[in-house]
Amino acid sequence: MRTTRLMVISMSAALVLSSCGGGGEDPGTGDADAAISVFNTEPENPLVPGNTTEFGGGQVLDAMFTGLIAYDPQTTEVKNAVADSITDVDSKVYTFKLKPGWKFHDGTDVKAKNFVDAWNWTAYGPNATQGAPFFSDIQGYDEVNPADPDGKSGPQSAPQPTTDKMSGLKVIDDHTFEVTLKNSSPVFKVKLGYTVYAPLPDSFFADKAAFEAKPIGNGPFKFVSRQVGTDVRLTRFDEYAGLDKPKFKDLTFKVYQSREAAYPDLVGNQLDFIEELPPSALAGQQHKTDLGDRVVERDSLINQTLAFPLYEEKYQNPDLRKAISMAINREEITTRIYEGSRQPADGLVHPLLKGYQKGQCGELCTYNPEKAREHLAKSGFTGTLKIISNADGGHSEWATAAANSIKNTLGIECVFEPATSLGEFRQKINAREMTDMYRAGWVADYPSIENFLNPIYRTGASSNDGEYSNPEVDAKLAAADTAPSEEESIKLYLEAEKMILNDLPFVPLWTQNTIGGKSDRLASAKLSAFRQLDLTSVEVA
Amino acid sequence: MGRYVLRRLLQMVPVFLGTTFGIYLLVWALPGDPFAGKCGERDCPDEFVAAMNEKYNLDDSIFVQYGKYLWNLLRGDFGETFSQVPVSELIANSYPVTLRLALVALAIEALIGVTAGVVTGLRRRGFLDSLVLVSTLFLISIPVFVTGYVLQLVLGLEWGIINPTVSSKAGFGELIVPGFVLASLSMAYVARLTRASIAETRRADYVRTAVAKGLPQSRVVGVHMLRNAALPVITFLGTDLGAFMGGAIVTEGIFNIPGIGGLIFKSIQAKEGATVTGLVVLLVLVYLVMNLLVDLLYGVLDPRIRYD
């Protein structure tokens, strides 16, 4: 009781003080004490970085935590954040030196052990976090997270790990720690800006329930309150040591039941930002009439593909796959349905990424009716094709268009078959029960070519749902993973991309722009390449 | 009377058990893995799925699962959602909101519906009668989401009289327009029901007697007629409160009201069995209590009806 009251008093005192003295810090950028509200979906898990991989929770945690490195929201370039220097030996043993002066919101220093403890906790199997697989590069991961002997569908469960510390993590001193990987990987340091790699304060390990009730981070915003199903309130952390200090004070993530429900609020200036408008608002360019210059648009690290279930005999013939790819008129679909907000893809790697090379897919991803029919004839396929996708989330329009494009070009029956929900759709994919080609897509976890290849195309990789397997590709990807320098690694990844495209286990379709909107009150608000509000860009008029 | 109430309350026990088991079975026995699609385009880690299965007893048979659930429920524990939020907290957040919305809607429905019904029932075939008949027909024929979106667009965005959506506090004032939308359909029914009922009682012997005694018009209509004519209307209003609480999905969605309807819808989609069962249990209780209240009101309104 006593402590609560004290907290309330000190908080309101801080509020009064800052509102008295506010406004004068940075006269050029408008109201520095303003409060803004941002659209959010209900976080699916308690707000713990290692256990959050979805949008609603991720957006809140990104504002509350800062990792070793950070990505430039606009260029996706990697910059040191908490890390002062990152050195490595053969891309296998990394040494991280932390900048002094970083503090958690409870006033304790951010030390090397906060990272090591957080990573160990997230990777430890019995904690059952969603982020655990991100630590599988580190030496000792298999000991803390032993594999289930008969897979998750089998009756046996994974054995209890013998240790809860990864042998590859070593604290050298308060501000230095060392990470040893299983194999060398130049891309490892690029991953570290993802939320699951954030540090956790000592209080988390002392009392997890208390932490979940009031999470403590080290980022530009600190937690104020959360009402489940309604909102999460944050406020600026004035002792934040990073350079990207926000230019406003209070940040409310407002939970809406749907994007459709949030849209009238945005139009009526009751909500300050929504990162992606609902499909109903985009239909017929309605958003341009409603919002005018308040529309915010940019390309983001997302691509859309058609995947083949390679375990189905029908799709094992590469000629059929090539025929399908060349029969889809990407230009027409992107301009007709998306009015140019999507760009036809010419490879598997996203154009925003460092090392991206144009035209990797070449003629295989170009609409060419004659060649398509030639390949179809060569494959000897007769019968009907289907495109399966969940119909929610605006997927039915393009899937129908692509099916028609295939049908008209190849002269064989091709239809769109909707699944009832994303859950049902994913379940069929996970169970390898897809009988026809299906929608696939990828949203980058971290800005690296590797993230668009390894998890999807390697034999047995976590998201290789089509069971694609090519030993040569695996070897090339492994060589790229362990290349001594980033340049060489990128070169090898591009070669692997070319080899994968030659097999065409997925048809690249297009990359995606995100179209959001802001209220009148915001003088400036940009989207980041990760489909979120770039908080550093926000200026309140 | 006391014995009647007690008997009715005891009857609630099997109804309660039957509905909760039915709902529990329907939700959890649905084909499909509740954890598919939960981690986006990526599969959830095995450890996560195993831990969740254990937590929700999904490895047990459905009967054992229900037994465990009921045991917890009887101790006041509604369980947790997949995101580890206590269901009781969700209920505590959303139930008052929906109850407020339902009460606002019920008040609007009763006030406007009964008034329009009485006025038109007394003066049939006049201008007012035709106007009410046409406008109720109009209301009945328009789906709720059209009324909702039109009012939101016109009052909220064009004229700026109301906020387009309801704030998280959802006070009574903000709920008037959504309440009107929710009530619009039933309001039309109440008006027609009252009109027919009033028209019928107007010819009853006791009304003629009351008029012959020289009682003032207001007393004849307010006490003698309305009291009897209200019986079918009360029945309708009583069950309607339950319908408002469970069926406000569309209205709550349009005005972003953080209430029960949207919560049930989302929980069914996410196969959140604990939440769905908990919410429906409470809805069943609302229905049962409302039915009991309506039955008891019968005795008050018409003393000829007795329960012994």
UniProtKB/TrEMBL annotation, chain A:
Residues 1-21 form the signal peptide. It holds the Pfam family SBP_bac_5. The lineage of its organism: Bacteria, Bacillati, Actinomycetota, Actinomycetes, Pseudonocardiales. The keyword Signal applies. One of its GO terms (cellular component) is periplasmic space. InterPro entries: Peptide/Ni-bd (IPR030678), SBP_5 (IPR039424), SBP_5_dom (IPR000914). SUPFAM superfamilies: Periplasmic binding protein-like II. Keywords: Signal. GO terms for biological process: peptide transport. Residues 154-165 have a biased composition (Polar residues). This is Peptide ABC transporter substrate-binding protein. One of its GO terms (molecular function) is peptide transmembrane transporter activity.
UniProtKB/TrEMBL annotation, chain B:
GO terms for cellular component: plasma membrane. Its main location: membrane. GO terms for biological process: transmembrane transport. It is a multi-pass membrane protein. InterPro entries: BPD_transp_1_N, MetI-like, MetI-like_sf. The chain crosses the membrane at residues 12-30, 97-119, 131-155, 175-193, 276-301. Belongs to the binding-protein-dependent transport system permease family. This is ABC transporter permease. The lineage of its organism: Bacteria, Bacillati, Actinomycetota, Actinomycetes, Pseudonocardiales.
